[in-house]
Amino acid sequence: MFTGLVESLGRVVDALREPPGLRLVVDAGAVAADAAIGDSICTSGCCLSVVRLDGPRLTFELGPETLARTTLGGLRTGAPVNLERSLRLSDRLGGHLVTGHVDGTGRLASRIEEGGWVTCRFAAPGPLLAQMASKGSVAVDGVSLTLVEVTSDEFSVALIPHTLASTTLGSLAAGDPVNLETDLVFKYVDRWLAARQPA
Length: 199
Description:
mainly beta, Elongation Factor Tu (Ef-tu), domain 3, 15% helix
């Protein structure tokens, strides 16, 4: 479990195809300092398990499901990734509960610069938009954000200067894909309501 508060930016060192999966090596900097084999690290929104340690470099194995549901299969050497270590039960929950289980991907439709702030509009699949509401929460590439507006085909968020400078969201351009995770509570309510509908 994570908070959606990115600790640092890592850099992809290598992305090695190992059919049907992929081995991802990330220079995680300080995040790797107390990492251990088997630890969960949220990597641009996706919960990955550390399988090898080499100084600041962490190695992860990505399976077919991860590659099908996330943007991680498209990462190239040098690409930045958002990193967050898993939540301790004694930690403050400054963002919202993020599982690191990506629901699907969306794309940046547009960005509006407003001084140091940026409003981003993302296109997303209908089933994911149905699990979003204005003033609710969403994780975009692992970043906990408050939804401003939700329509039938898009949602918007307002990014403060700190978020733009400290995460990969600051360098997004129109058309870029992102990993999306809807709010955990919203998902369970949606599932419960669906199960109560007559067949």
